[in-house]
Every structure is written in structure tokens, then in C-alpha cells.
Amino acid sequence: MDDHQEEAPEKVKLFGMWASPYVLKVKWALSIKGVEYEYVEEDLRNKSDDLLEHNPVHKKVPVLLYRGKPVAESDVIVEFVDEAWSYRGGRILPDDPHERAMARFWVRFVHDKLSPPIWKWFTAAPGEGQKAALGAAVEQLQVLEDLLALGGKDFFAGESVGLVDLSLGALAYVIPMYEEIIGVRMVTEERFPSLSAWMGRFLDSPPVKDHPPPVERLKPRYRAMREAFLNMG
């Protein structure tokens, strides 16, 4: 088969779970590339033999099956999708080596510096601990605000959704849910004008419109998570 020949839908399979932001990130990447695939919904309380076979190390979703070969971990899958279908759709990673390295740097920033204080803020009881987590999250959000303002582009790497946008994308719908559940605003247009505008553009972008986050279905799930953490405290 020629490398650029269309893949039959049955050649690509995605194992996922409806509430996972990591699975949604992979769906967005596949949408950017226009890749057809079979989707398999997993019950993570009763994982299928296929999932355990294809991801025996982490036993998690997402897992992408390509020509019978599995690829696991969402960031790895996104980069694989960009390379495997480099001849079609928009580029997810920049072509320039330095820009590509910087995109990976900011992905790590989201995972290591930004997401932890936001989660801590959401799961903490009202009080000094929650205020401290909010302050830490706002400090890291300001870094992204400055990055967007300096770049002056619609998205982090240009005029279309790229790697950093996909990695940060879940927060575009998760933060508003957290704010609604807690009753405290974290991201406002006054405080973060560039980031607020980016959130709107991202949620209105073609890949997200193809696979919109199930916000209303997620809200009770996140409310229950917060209640569970508060009860543990």
C-alpha cells in the first residue's frame, strides 16, 4: 500500500471513554487530519481484553490502533497522528525544529505547572488552601496570557489549532465548569483578555465543533468528584 493511500476506516481504531479529556484531544487531532476511524467506548471499571492487550503497561485510554499496532498516551498519539498523516490536513506540530521543541516545552508546562494548581483549587475546601491554589493557577495562567499577547496570533503556534492548543484545550471547557460549580471566577476577560479570546476561538474551531465536549453530561460528574474530595478532607 502506498504511504499516501487512504486508510480504510477499519485500519484505525480508537479506544476511549466519553468523559476523558485525553481521548477528546486525540479525537480533535484525528479531525484535523481528516482521519476516519472506528471508536470503541471502554468501561474503565470493566476494561476489555482488547484494551489490556493493547496497553498492558498503563491499562488506560486512549489507545490508537493503526494497522494492528497500538499507540498509547494522548501526547504520543497526537504526535503520531501528525506524522502518520503528514500529507493531509493541517500540521499539528511546527515544521521548524526549534518551534517544534518549544511546542513540546509548553505542553510540559501545561501538564506540570498549570494543571496541578487548577485541580487543587477545584478539589480544595473554601479557605486558605483554596486561595493559595487559585493564586498559583493565576500566576501560571498569566504566563500563557503573556505568551499569547506576545505572539499576536489566533492560536499558540499560528492561525490554526496546533499541539499546544490541543494540550491546553480541555481547560477551555473545564475551567468554566469549575467556576460554575465553585462559584468563583478564575479566567475573566478583564484579567486575561488574550486567553479568554483564545478559549472562545478554540471552542469554535473546526475540530472542536466536530467533537464538542459533553459539558452538560460532565457537570454532575465533576460535582460528584468535588464532593468526594471535600468529604475526604
Can you tell me about this structure?
This protein has 233 residues and is of the alpha+beta class. The chain folds into two domains: 9-84, Glutaredoxin (3-Layer(aba) Sandwich); 97-232, Glutathione S-transferase Yfyf (Class Pi), Chain A, domain 2, CATH 1.20.1050.10. It has nine helices and four strands, in the order βαβαββααααααα. It has a four-stranded mixed sheet with strand order 2-1-3-4, with helices on one face. Helix 1 (21-33) runs parallel beside helix 3, helix 1 runs antiparallel to helix 6 and helix 5 packs across helix 7 (193-203).
What's the overall average pLDDT, rounded? 94
- Across the major sheet, the strand order is 2-1-3-4
Gyration radius (Cα, Å) is: 18 Å
Total of domains: 2
Form type: globular
Output the CATH class name of the largest domain: Mainly Alpha
Secondary-structure-derived class: alpha+beta
* CATH architecture identity of the largest domain: Up-down Bundle
InterPro entries: Glutathione-S-Trfase_C-like, Glutathione-S-Trfase_C_sf, Glutathione_S-Trfase, Glutathione_S-Trfase_N, GST_C, GST_C_Tau, Omega/Tau-like, Thioredoxin-like_sf
Domain GST N-terminal: 10-89
EC number: 2.5.1.18
Family: Belongs to the GST superfamily.
SSE diagram, text form:
Layout: E1 12-16, H1 21-33, E2 38-41, H2 49-54, E3 63-66, E4 69-72, H3 74-84, H4 97-123, H5 128-151, H6 163-182, H7 193-203, H8 206-210, H9 215-232
Parallel strand pairs: 1-2
Antiparallel strand pairs: 1-3, 3-4
Keyphrases for this structure?
alpha+beta, Glutaredoxin, transferase, 2 domains, 233 residues, globular, disordered N terminus, 9 helices, Glutathione S-transferase Yfyf (Class Pi), Chain A, domain 2
